[in-house]
Design goal:
The structure holds three protein chains of three kinds. Chain A is built from 13 helices and 14 strands. Chain A is α+β, with helices and mostly antiparallel strands. Chain A has three domains: 99 residues, ATPase, nucleotide binding domain (Nucleotidyltransferase, domain 5, 2-Layer Sandwich); 145 residues, ATPase, nucleotide binding domain (Nucleotidyltransferase, domain 5); 89 residues, Alpha-Beta Plaits (2-Layer Sandwich), CATH 3.30.70. Chain A has a five-stranded mixed β-sheet with strand order 3-2-1-4-5. In chain A, strands 8-7-6-9 form a four-stranded mixed β-sheet. Chain B is an alpha/beta fold. Chain B is 57% helix and 10% strand. In chain B, the strands form two sheets. In chain B, strands 2-1-3-4 form a four-stranded parallel β-sheet, with helices on both faces. A four-stranded parallel β-sheet of chain B has the order 6-5-7-8, sandwiched between helices. Chain C is of the alpha/beta class. Chain C is globular, with a radius of gyration of 20 Å. The chains are: A alpha+beta, B alpha/beta, C alpha/beta. At the B-C interface, helix 7, helix 8, helix 15 and helix 16 of B face helix 4, helix 6, helix 7 and helix 15 of C.
């Protein structure tokens, strides 16, 4: 089955093609004046690198600013939902997302299934968005892709009190005239933008596993400033710019197949003639606290790193094949032990089938 | 959320700074006596707040235009929200933290940064937890609507004092009733009784202070004018924090003597005096040093602040303290912003410009202050009729991120050029 | 979503209200009233009792500014850019002659922006009648006394202006007409409790707006006609994803509500001063009291504006509405620079969320129909509500 997600943003358009749960290809191009043309351009770019044509796609979901103007989309879903779903595909543990796009900035909270639980957007103002950085790059005459790196080379950080696009521009020009190095000016602007984005994150409550998406997430200077401010290392995916489109294509698969996928639930155990014996761990919910490992009287749990290097509760390799023999099942365990894997798990990530 | 440890550390830091400033002041003969007294009074005010818990004293936090005389008369430790948080922000450089915390609490940029900062300072535990909040709608929605949030943050009771819009007999009577109810509230909360004799003394003190303030205003009519921009904020601070108390009287007397000496010697605050300007609304607090320096460099002197230093006509009668407090609240210079702004206020602006021989006027337009900014057009029009140009300077009273010093300098310089050409 | 235009009776009944909005202020009612030499006054804020004006033979018209989002040229020049866009819209319309048909204006000291709007109106727009009512900001018995005194003054001023004596009998008559209106509106609004309401939130705003622009007697007739002819099996919405409450500042443009409903959000209730809050409480005249007393009590106690302190009563009523109309979520729309509602937002949000009702907060310019950003937020909010249900 083939699915497409397309994200028509205010500055750039993105497309992702998936076969079931695997990304086949993606593409990014500038959003032209005609949104419909742009949508064809970006999808064809993605399709051709996967050797496919539009007819092969089973279902398409559009998102982004221009989502209602994609003629070949079966449905449109807001970019807020798509970013949450997209990041969940990469990092199921992420609960907070900062999406820094072309014309707005959003902080999103989501659950272990990538469902949005809360979101806030920047107040009406271009400060701190992609467009803001484009303008700054132009004023300083530095390529947009270089501003982040250059900001990291600053010897001192030029204080910027404002990120109002209008005021910041004139302040930057004033500093340039004074001979302030561009790197220092950029460091100051990056810090001011990071401070504001951090405020946004605080409003949805910042959880340990957080990620940054959108074009600005490619800016190393910005990521460094946010890391410093939050005191937390963000989980970054290869191409944070396509996350919206990725989320859209995951939605496309779900909508096509009907219902929500629960791909974060990992089952251990087996079935025999006497019944089903599975322990299911929702890795999206599991926060790797390790309490289950400590309390389990049968010692079937272990804490290990998943593919993304995050600690997660798992069932010991050696226990998997004899699970019902070691673990008496939740009912009887609960009768005998006040503290067990269910009661200590604050995230309710563990369930038993017996 | 409240961290008392943090609070006392912060206040102690503040007290050390005030003591240092006094010490430095005493070593420099050019620093005038009232400036040293200013820091001494701040030290006193904050020491009372710091020690209140230990001494078993009751702290009431209150908004700017609450009659503080009542708190002193009941031996309650006053903690004036705006000024304590601003002073804290200024001396700890934590203003941005306060404002950003206020934003997190749900106060968006539309709420003035002063009120966002107050809520933030309480929430971060930088201001000590009060035992009660008393607040009013004098002078704006922001002050009125912040009270319940401050109560919630501090989990303490509160009393809202409602000011009527106009000054009819019924409205004055209502205000009197509100003040009475507030006294009952405080009596209930503290278990103490109002000391009416003490209140009468405070009212007499307030009357005295109003009289000296009026005399100071008279002195500022002199050419050259003796009053420094920095003194404006200091004077407001002292009179707001020590309403009716001997401390404020002492300060004002000292200031008055110093100014009259300057006048008799023909000494101006700036030399040579080239531009006399009238200031409308409040200039940004954190820019006070800049304004002082700019004034000196350019020979600009602020001769009057019609909405902050010009008391309305009237007298207080210490034998009738409640009626006097009502009367005082109607005489407050700032109240002209609350009552319907019509001919009377406009006349005051025009008269002030004439009497103080102002060459121009500067309106400090705080970007989040609605009720002041909405008057700019009215003021500009009436000043224009008497040929006094008005500069509108967009700024923010406490949030430094709104405009830059550069921008302010540029606009002021251009304005002075315009005055020069006339 | 608005149903396709048909010649059904419901649509016909609705079109009568739309006609008033379309022609305003050149409606036959206003023209006729003026032709008879009677006065037309504008009023600002729900704390100005309409019954008193009505009893003085006045046609009261609510000041609501432009019905769409404007470029506030004069609005900014006079009121500065930081005053709420509602007050700037009203002043601009006034300065451009849009309210020249009025003989005067009456307002209350409800909030800073309203106060300043009244100040500038008084100074720059000459009218023969101008009245400002002090509206206490609390509910104490002394506050009620002051408000009563204030509207007594208002009554006298109106009598002098119109030359018509306002008597207990004429006030009682006016109360009867206005109460009838409130009863009819309650019946209409209650239809929205149904799973598939026969009337949309957008249509409700259109009806409400017409009510501010016409004689109450005629408005009541129109309402009766609608209630008689409305097809209660009509499904006004074709696309339903969640039941919503609208909360927040003054709202004038029904297209804003329509844009939410087109995305699948059923706006089934609200606490807006241009809708539910305006008519909510009845005037109940007790024995041995004057009608003016009853008016005074009702207006100060009515479903409160965010200006009132303490806010407990407002929060309680919002909660009751949210439960009564079984809402899944609430959209708070706050007119840019509307301070009282901005301050109250965090309290409303906390209270509703404790009831399991998420809140989307939107910062809007008065009169806005919608925008890309608003659409995105509303859509994401509806997706979130759907996700919560699954």
């Amino acid at each position: 089955m083939l699915f497409a997600g397309i994200d028509i943003g205010s500055r750039s358009a993105k497309a992702v093609i998936m076969r079931d749960d695997t990304i086949l290809s993606s593409a990014i191009c500038d959003t032209g004046p005609e949104s419909i043309k742009t949508s064809y351009k970006v999808i064809e770019q993605a399709l051709s690198s996967a050797g496919l044509s539009l007819d092969d796609i089973d279902y398409t979901v559009a998102t982004g600013y221009g989502r209602v103007l994609v003629p070949f989309a079966n449905e449109n879903i807001s970019e807020i939902s798509c970013h949450a779903r997209g990041i969940n595909w990469y990092f199921p543990s992420v609960r907070t997302i900062l999406d820094m796009g072309g014309q707005d900035c959003k902080a999103i909270s989501c659950d272990g299934n990538g469902k949005v639980t809360n979101f806030v957007m920047n107040d009406k103002c271009a400060g701190g968005t992609g467009r803001f950085f484009e303008m700054i790059a132009e004023v300083l005459n530095v390529p947009l892709t270089e501003i982040g790196n250059l900001s990291l080379k600053a010897k001192t950080v030029t204080p910027f009190n404002t990120i109002c696009a209008v005021f910041a521009k004139s302040e930057a020009i004033a500093y340039l005239k004074k001979g302030t190095p561009k790197s220092n000016i950029l460091a100051g602007l990056h810090r001011a933008v990071a401070a504001r984005s951090f405020d946004l994150l605080k409003r949805v409550s910042l959880e340990k596993d957080f990620s940054i998406t959108g074009g600005i997430a490619k800016n190393r200077g910005m990521v460094a400033k946010l890391t410093e401010m939050a005191g937390l290392e963000p989980l970054l995916c290869e191409d944070p710019q396509i996350i919206g489109a990725l989320g859209a294509s995951i939605f496309a698969r779900e909508r096509f197949q009907g219902g929500t996928l629960e791909n974060t639930k990992v089952q251990y155990g087996y079935t025999d003639g006497t019944g089903n014996y599975f322990i299911t761990i929702d890795t999206g919910k599991c926060n790797g606290c390790g309490k289950c490992v400590q309390v389990c009287p049968a010692e079937v749990f272990v804490l290990a790193e998943n593919a993304n290097g995050q600690p997660k509760a798992m069932i010991k390799e050696t226990a998997r094949k004899q699970l019902p023999l070691l673990c008496p099942g939740f009912q009887s365990c609960n009768e005998n032990h006040e503290a067990n894997c269910h009661t200590v798990c604050s995230e309710e990530a563990i369930s038993h089938s017996w | 959320m409240i961290n008392l440890q943090n609070t006392s550390e912060t206040i102690n830091h503040l007290l050390r700074t005030f003591r240092l400033l006094q010490k430095v002041g005493r070593k420099h003969p050019e620093v005038r006596k009232h400036e040293i007294l200013f820091y001494q009074l701040l030290e006193k005010y904050f020491t009372r707040i710091l020690n209140a818990r230990e001494e078993g004293n009751f702290i009431a936090t209150h908004t700017t235009f609450m009659p503080g005389e009542i708190l002193y008369a009941m031996d309650i430790v006053p903690m004036q929200t705006e000024w304590t948080s601003w002073i804290l922000a200024l001396f700890t450089k934590r203003g941005t933290d306060f404002i950003s915390e206020g934003r997190r609490l749900g106060l968006t940029n539309e709420v003035c940064s002063a009120q966002r900062g107050i809520a933030g300072a309480f929430s971060l535990g930088t201001l000590p937890r009060p035992d009660a909040v008393i607040w009013s709608n004098l002078i704006c929605n922001n002050i009125a609507k912040n009270g319940e949030l401050i109560m919630e943050i501090n989990r303490c009771p509160g009393f809202f004092l409602d000011h009527p819009l106009g000054d009819s007999a019924a409205e004055r009577n209502y205000l009197r009733g509100e003040i009475e109810d507030m006294i009952h509230f405080l009596e209930e909360q503290t278990g103490r009784k109002m000391d009416w004799d003490h209140l009468s003394d405070s009212v007499a003190g307030t009357m005295k202070q109003i009289e000296i303030s009026r005399q100071i205003c008279e002195l500022r009519k002199a050419v050259p004018s003796p009053f420094h921009p920095q003194e404006f904020m200091e004077m407001l601070t002292v009179t707001y924090l020590f309403q009716g108390q001997p401390e404020a009287t002492e300060y004002l007397e000292m200031l008055y003597e110093d100014l009259s000496l300057s006048v008799s010697e023909g000494r101006g605050a700036v030399s040579p005096e080239r531009f006399r300007v009238m200031s409308i609304f409040l200039s940004p607090i954190y820019r006070a040093p800049f304004l002082e320096k700019f004034s000196q460099e350019h020979g600009m002197v602020s001769v009057a602040e019609p909405i902050f230093t010009q008391w309305e006509e009237g007298k207080l009668d210490p034998t009738r303290p409640l009626d006097s407090l009502v009367q005082k609240l109607y005489m407050l210079p700032e109240r002209s912003l609350y009552s319907p702004v019509g001919e009377r206020t406009l006349k005051k602006i025009v008269d002030c410009a004439k009497e103080y021989k102002a060459d121009g006027a500067i309106a400090y337009a705080d970007v989040a202050c609605q009720h002041t900014c909405a008057l700019i057009k009215l003021f500009k029009d009436v000043l224009n009729d008497i040929d006094v140009p008005l500069l509108i300077l967009d700024c923010d009273l406490v949030d430094q991120t709104v405009t830059s010093e550069e921008d302010m300098r540029e606009k002021l310089e251009q304005f002075l050029e315009l005055l020069e050409d006339r | 979503m608005k149903p396709a235009p048909t010649a059904d009776l419901t649509s016909q009944a609705l079109d009568r209200f739309r006609e008033v909005n379309g022609l305003f202020p050149e409606t036959s009612h206003i023209l006729e009233h003026k032709r008879q030499g009677k006065k037309v006054l504008g009023w600002l804020c729900t704390y100005v009792p309409e019954e008193i004006m009505h009893a003085a033979g006045v046609l009261p018209i609510r000041i609501t500014g432009y019905s769409h989002e404007i470029k506030p040229d004069e609005g900014n020049a006079y009121l500065y850019v930081n005053n709420c866009s509602f007050s700037r819209s009203c002043l601009q319309l006034g300065l451009r002659g849009g309210y020249d048909f009025l003989d005067g204006i009456a307002g209350g000291s409800t909030c800073d922006c309203a106060r300043r709007l009244m100040d500038l109106w008084h100074h720059y727009i000459a009218t023969s009648f101008y009245h400002m009512i002090t509206v206490p900001q609390k509910y104490s018995s002394k506050a009620h006394e002051l408000y009563y005194e204030q509207i007594t003054q208002f009554t006298q001023h109106l009598s002098e202006f119109t030359g018509i004596e306002i008597t207990d009998a004429s006030l009682s008559h006016s109360i009867q007409i206005y109460n009838e209106s409130r009863e009819l509106l309650r019946k209409l609004y209650d239809l929205r409790k149904a799973n598939n309401p026969p009337i949309t939130g957008s249509e409700i705003i259109e009806i409400s707006n017409a009510g501010f622009r016409m004689p109450k007697e005629t408005f009541n007739e129109y309402l009766k006609n609608l209630l008689t002819n409305i097809d209660t099996s009509r499904h006004a919405y074709s696309n339903s994803r969640a039941r919503l409450m609208l909360t927040g500042s003054i709202l004038g443009n029904h297209e804003f509500v329509e844009s939410i409903e087109q995305l699948g959000g059923l706006v089934v209730t609200d606490d807006l001063c241009t809708s539910t809050r305006h008519w909510y409480d009845m005037i109940e005249v007790n024995q041995d009291e004057s009608p003016l007393r009853a008016i005074s009590r009702r207006y100060l106690n009515n479903f409160p504006c965010a200006r009132m302190i303490p806010h407990d009563e407002r929060l309680k009523r919002i909660r009751d509405l949210a439960q009564g109309f079984r809402v899944d979520g609430a959209i708070s729309q706050i007119v840019h620079n509307c301070t009282p509602y901005t301050h109250e937002l965090s309290f409303v949000t906390k209270m509703l969320e404790a009831q399991g009702i998420p809140v989307l907060s939107l910062d809007v310019e008065y009169g806005t129909a919608s925008s890309g950003q608003i659409q995105t937020r509303v859509q994401a909010f509806l997706e979130m509500l759907e996700g919560k249900r699954r």
